[in-house]
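Troubleshooting log. The previous structure file for this entry was overwritten by mistake, so regenerating from the original sequence record. Sequence copied from the archived sheet and checked twice against the printout by T.R.
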Amino acid sequence: MKRRRPLTRIRMIIRVAVLSLCALLVLLVSIYIFKPELLAWAGTEPVESEKLKEPEGEGKEAAVEDGLLSPWRYPDPDESEELDAPPEEVPDESPERPLEAVDGSNLLALVTKQTTLGRYAPTDLEPIPAEIVHPDRRGSKYYLRCEPLGQLKKMFAAAAEDGVQLTVTSAYRSYDTQVSTFNDWVSLDGEEEAQRYSARPGQSEHQLGTTLDFNIDVTAGAEQHAWLADNAHLYGFAMSYPEGAEEVTGYRYEPWHYRYIGVEAAKGWKALGLPLCLYLQQKR
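Regenerated output below.
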């Protein structure tokens, strides 16, 4: 009988490598099939990754200062349409007192905490020229209805002749944008305080497409606010929330907030000296 040749060193290494690879494959398949049981046997459980938490206390204040949570950073009119999910709805009426529906297309529509525009959206919005928008806001587009936009351009030119540059910091805001804006303020200051300076969705004059904020910085915008108080009515614009009228309007004094109601109506409003909501009630 012929004696077998002994295995060479190379053949031995190859055989050991093949056997090791087979054993490893068997182990991996076993782990894949029996993973839950193996984890339980080892006394471990899968751990979920921690969710990001909203900053609180000083961290939250810092986030506001950085513009991360600031409600004054109004989104573009179409920004809410690009979100994966719509913002959380805010009830626009109390259960005890249903709201009166008003037609937003009417320049004299009464918009208060007792009325609602629903989901009204203007059909004749046009972009405000960049030179009228505040330099810090020119990265976004702001819109206004056609008629008030024409009067805004005239008013801008008249102010420039008097050495005053009007700068818009907010204009049309959709229902969904107002949902986000109001929610931001509530998260920051609580609902009771937020309602003094931010409207619920469906109750904001900005949704009309006829309303503007001119430089909301009280100090930096003081010259603009003074000029507007004397001249805005000549171009059809009226200040909605005058000083000392919070019990009537429901909102704090806002010297930057003007709404277009038409030239003749604005002159009548100026002559009577009434808060805008009372004047509009008389015009119904």
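The radius of gyration is 32 Å. Archived copy saved in two places this time.
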